[in-house]
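DATA SHEET
Item: assembly model
Revision: 1
Owner: S.N.
Input lines:
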Amino acid sequence: MRKPLGETTSLIQTRKGFMKNCWEKYQSSGFFDELITEKGTARPVARKLVNHFCRLSPSEMVARGNAAELSIKEMGISFTIYSQGQNIDRAWPFDIIPRLIKSSDWAMVRQGLTQRSRALNAFINDVYNEQKILKDGLIPAEVVLESKDFKKPCIGFRPKYGVWAHICGSDLIRDEDGSFYVLEDNLRVPSGVSYMIENREVTKRVLPDLFKNYSVRPVDDYPSKLYSTLASLSPRDRKRPCVVVLTPGIYNSAYFEHAFLAQGMGAELVEGADLFVDKDECVYMRTVDGPQRVDVIYRRIDDEFIDPEAFREDSALGVPGIIRSWRKGNVAIANAPGSGVADDKVVYAFVPEMIRYYLKEKPLINSVKTYLCMIEKDRDYVLENIEKLVVKPANESGGYGMMVGPHASKRDHNKFRKLIEENPRNYIAQPTLSLSTAPTYVDGGIAPRHLDLRPFILQGKSSWVTQGGLTRVAMREGSLVVNSSQGGGSKDTWIVEPRK
Amino acid sequence: MLSSVAERLYWMARYLERAEDTARLTYAYTQFILDIPRGSEPGWGSLIDIIDGHSAFDNRYKNYNERNVCKFLIADLDNFSSIRFSVKAARENVRTTRDVLPEQCWELVNELYIYVNANADKVKARQSRLDFLDQVLAMSAQIYGLISANLSHDHAYRFMRMGRSLERADMTSRVVDVAVMTAMDSKPGGEEASTWIWGHLLKSLSAVTAYRREIGPLVDADEVINFVFGDQNFPRSISYCLTDVRKNSKALRNHAQIEKLLLSMGRKLTRFEASRMSLEKLHKYIDVFQEQLSKLNFLVYQSWFSK
């Protein structure tokens, strides 16, 4: 065979050095970058990983990217979005370059998150019972009692261990100097954990060599930890309590995850119509062998829809009488109905107070400075500085209905000024945070993209936090919106142990 | 086992079997046509007879030609027996029962779905059609292999077996029925035509080797019919399918009514002897059998799925 011409060879070589060049030129100015320092060198923890990626040729990068896409398609990792009147099943967006966190950094975060979860649960248990924190005037009573998430049918109830929110997904960000902040706590039906596990699975499939020289904490033990947490709530003392996952059905955006978790726990995945409450006020599921008693329900249905007897009468997704059964102590529900009362951006502002009040401890993880529009002083500040702030409705999730001041138009500023004045209780504002970045594979090159992190905290008889969590990436340049329903992507997240 | 999950597994197996049966049927017919001397090819309409698809077909097409019939059998979503529809329906059912199936099962069914969607429209040419059908048959064999090797043979497995065997018995009886009708239409004493018809029937059911080993190399109408109805060991014979349903239903509670019907169907089958029946009588016999199958399906629903 003829040897390739000299010119062609050099072309191949430059292409080979192309990725290296991309990494060397990489710069994320003004933000904390997860892998690269301000000087442009790899952080110690990321050195081997960056070297590995530098050695790949552009075509190899394309091949790995395609392999990841194919795995995701074949593994059927999808999420559903509702658009133009129909449900569309989208493949899960994934970036092949992992995000690395040192295990020593993570240990601190874990402690902070457990502390938060304990305080939030103490708060929920308090407001449905003694309401000490309101009587002591730490939190204005109307914030809690007038919230649409304060559920009257829950008053006076005490769940096992005093825990209401058994599964919490907190959104974390890192500021310019790399410190972690909690941006919000999702206590209703937080989702994303299955994607955390599947992201690792995809990385293992398409970049197995990357794991050489690294000791990465595994993430696939979540379903068994979740099962233990749920089983610890069982009202009956049985070796293997009957745990079910209650889903609104296949058209829910997180259905993939519901099925994934049921499978991971060896639990039945049920819909409302599979369950009923009998005359003995216990919950049963309809099986081919007749009714079978259910001990614990991991519900992925919102409070509003869970029981047409107690909440929305028109709900076809729920189970009539399930709240009666729960209050009698015949069945455990996770998260307990009413937990959403602490999942409110106004209540969020008071979490550091709660930690000091209930636990007599110092908060171990930062919260973001929050201005409550219901307080006159804060409101004046927000109205005057709206172009610098992020304004959020107190009670929306998924990044909907918020305004990022520096990125918004004058018209939007005025629109939100008006909205705030009309309904101050419904709005909070926070300084525009500089979300950290990480190198992301875009348009054949490497570029910084903003990201956040959602770890999951389990709380039952004992508590536990995931190793890392789900990293979500804003795929558009400069964008801060990481939600997958709005064009966000994701990354595998590695908690890396120091080398021995 | 949740009733709703049992129902989905039952249908998942029925749809997978249906996709496989339609693939086998189309494959056999495409090959069959190659053996027929030019000028005396039978029409493609008999494939539509088998799946009872005339009204859906007529809504879309005028001519019962090779291209239209194959498109209808393979790619059309408004034909509930087409490969694409069946695979799609099977996938929907697996999607909602992932938690009870082996993990890889979802991936395999999903791969089959992706493959069928990507290739179902490229089956005009016989070569690519045969390749496509081959692949569908191979992939469904893989899925069954995985299920029987990796899924505990518990209730979940039993409902899948019942669905699969009922669908099979249904398809086998339809294939025989169409052969019977074709034979009725052909001229009396047409020795050659008869060999085509019954030989092709064996091919459509992948029964050629089994028939040779059990009965012998000569294709005889009565022997063929007796074999596909009554053989105890061939997994696509009607007798075998019904025994399989019975075996699996017996392990479940509430099986008395089904047992009763299956026993009476079984008694009728033991007395079955093709040589004592005219083709017209055979056609009526199959009609009655089909009615009993739909009664069986109804009883399965009533005994385990209804709320």
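QC remark: The longest strand of chain A covers residues 445-454.
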